Amino acid sequence: MSDVLYLHGFLSSPQSVKAQATKAWFARHYPQVTLHTPQLPNSPGQVRPQLERYIEQHPQLLEQGLKVIGSSMGGYLASHLVEHYGGRAALVNPAVRPYELLLEYLGDHINPYTQEPFSLVTDDMHILKSLDTPIVSQPEQYLVLLQTGDETLDYRQAEQKYQGAQLRIEQGGDHSFENYEQHLPDIARFLAV
Q1: Could you give the domains of the chain?
Q2: End-to-end CA distance of the chain, in Å?
Q3: Dihedral (CA of 83, 84, 90, 92) sign
Q4: What pTM was computed for the model?
């Protein structure tokens, strides 16, 4: 048995296309793997305590080494967890400096999946910055999938941050990461499920 943690992005949920595709693929090809897809809070201030609580409640996530798949903001959080707990992470178009990017999003929002209203405030950016891992200590512990056509994030930031990692850079694509499912066999191999 093996456990994998999937972390979705900002304004997303375990019901997202990528999370559901990951769940279905693992169920079909690796039925012995338990895929954890927690709903992350919309408020950055609640993310760290919730993730720490989730890992405490699911100690099996750490028993064979933490294995994380993180998309966008989930990639940012996955890096934080791997730097803290050790393990391996597969990152899909990961956010690198969301505390800068989300300055444009201060104000009121509604999560399109959960319909939950929330507000982003300046303090949230400080909280996000406290989770930053500007330099990853063991880049070989990361598989990073990037598409140059990402309309939300500049892929070059991730390319620079994760030098020394297994980088896969595809021309074109978009933030959702086109043809993501074709990369799941590589992701599973990398995580050694």
Answers
A1: 2-191 (3.40.50.1820)
A2: 8
A3: negative
A4: 0.96
